[in-house]
Amino acid sequence: MTGNAQPGRVGYREIADDLRRQIDSGELPPGSKIPGENDLTSQYGVEQPTARRALDVLKNEGLIVAKRGSGTFVREFRPIRRVTPDRLQASTSWGSGRPIWTTDVGTRPRTESVTVDVELPPVYVSAVLNLDDGTHVVTRRRTYVVDAKPVQLATSYYPAALVAGSAITEIDTGDGGAYARLKELGHEPVRFREELRSRMPRDAERQALDLTQGTPVILIVRTAYTADDQAVEVNEMVLDSAAYVLEYKFTSQD
After folding, report:
1. pTM (2 decimals)?
2. How far is CA 39 from CA 56, 70, 73, in A?
3. Residue 175: what are its φ and ψ, rounded to 5°?
4. Smaller CB count within 10 Å for the chain: N or C?
């Protein structure tokens, strides 16, 4: 028994509160095993459904994760630090032939499930790219994997007429990626706009990112603009929130 919990006088919320306190204080550090349902019933003097509900509370909060056949553990957080605007600087990133990802993790991550299609875009993408109704886009979809764990889904949209015949329509876009190819086409991205929000994952996203219970995703939609304010790419990214810290740098100067 820990904290102020007393056998026979606690409910699932009190058990969850007690375990949460131990996690927050470091008494149960990241990676440590959480008592199972049988241990909790004995420790707190409750029935098994009460113990199960207490664990479900912490799973839904993203504090603990269940590993099949091993038990339940305090979530470990080893974040990828995504630093903006550093990652989009042409001089140190894509403009020098390096992938944007090297700014985040220091090495090129593995990409999986890369597909390239020509299709009609979602309505909002068509509006951002200022396309007429029925105009097609080149769509690039891929999954980024770090340390054998999928961490991000990305879907990029480009006006089909703008990138026709370029490496953007190929699986491998070459050194510097799509932004370097846009520059070669005379449509260099010089300004970017990102919108962020957090939500719970859709089922397909949960499976693709191998998300544990209670883990939200971060949705980032980035638009790339040329010097004359032409939108040349819309990139929709779905990030595993348990894998990232998003860092933004600003100055007080215009």
Report:
1. 0.73
2. 15, 15, 14
3. -60, 135
4. C
